[in-house]
User: Which sequence fits this backbone?
């Protein structure tokens, strides 16, 4: 019998219990770093060293981080459902927890690319944990300065088309740990079929408007996923 399809949109809150700061909670990343300076194409062009150092620090933090129970439960859903994870996160914790189909809308911290043509597949390369830093003077395959494979504010989100195709065929849509403030990611919910169930796991109230019944689980990712398993699998 064909498995039902689940699409899960995750954000920084998914990795909070792994010790990685979110962006907009109190003491979040954007409280301590000026977004424009470290997460925009203008900021990179103005001061590439500052931006390279910012992502080098986040990459080294990631190497000291492990998936949390919530990531593991998301991966475990694949035993019962056809699961597509659409994440805004640039960490690799979903993959390391065992999720096999992950679409990164905002890029990947453990990858680097060309600063001339960031979406040229020939220039997107893995960063090894042994040499986690990108430095000025490091070159991409096209000879340009190597840069983080991150989608910065002001840049296109090429994987959004793939995410839409997944959302359009979802039987269940789950949102975990995102404030739904950044587009196009937050707009993904507009592509789900009318009436399919939507579950939101977040300790705070998150604005979700859609033509579907929305079930809110006001808990963290780990506890929330345990509760969701009980609901979905009538455990
Ligand atoms: N479990 C689940 N959710 C949590 C937890 C937790 N333990 N802790 C916090 N949250 C929730 C917060 O309540 C909030 O709704 O996670 C959400 C985090 O929101 P943001 O910090 O805005 O992160 P996110 O929505 O992923 O940001 C989207 O903005 O700056 C850009 O590119 C960046 O991908 C990021 C995008």
Assistant:
């Amino acid at each position: 019998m064909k498995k039902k399809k689940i699409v899960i949109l995750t954000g920084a809150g998914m990795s909070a219990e792994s010790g990685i700061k979110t962006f907009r909670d109190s003491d979040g990343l954007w409280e301590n770093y000026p977004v424009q300076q470290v997460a925009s194409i203008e900021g990179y062009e103005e001061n590439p060293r500052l931006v390279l150092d910012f992502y080098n620090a986040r990459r080294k933090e990631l190497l000291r981080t492990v998936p949390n129970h919530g990531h593991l439960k998301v991966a475990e859903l694949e035993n019962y459902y056809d699961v597509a994870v659409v994440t805004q996160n640039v960490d690799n914790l979903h993959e390391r927890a065992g999720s096999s189909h992950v679409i990164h809308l905002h890029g990947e911290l453990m990858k680097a690319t060309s600063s001339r043509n960031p979406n040229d597949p020939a220039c997107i390369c893995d960063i090894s944990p042994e040499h986690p830093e990108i430095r000025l003077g490091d070159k991409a395959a096209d000879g340009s300065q190597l840069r983080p494979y991150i989608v910065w504010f002001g840049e296109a989100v090429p994987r959004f088309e793939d995410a839409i195709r997944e959302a359009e065929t979802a039987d269940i849509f789950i949102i975990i740990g995102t404030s739904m403030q950044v587009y196009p990611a937050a707009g993904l919910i507009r592509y789900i079929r009318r009436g399919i169930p939507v579950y939101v796991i977040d300790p705070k109230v998150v604005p979700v408007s859609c033509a579907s019944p929305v079930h809110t689980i006001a808990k963290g990712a780990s506890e929330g996923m345990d509760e969701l398993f009980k609901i979905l699998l009538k455990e």
User: Anything to note?
Assistant: DSSP finds nine helices and nine strands in the chain. The pocket of adenosine-5-diphosphoribose is lined by residues 11-13, 16-17, 22-25, 28, 88, 106, 177-179, 181-182, 201-204, 206, 220-221 (CB under 6 Å). The two ends are 20 Å apart (CA to CA). Strands lie at 5-10, 82-87, 102-104, 107-114, 125-126, 146-150, 172-176, 198-201, 214-217.
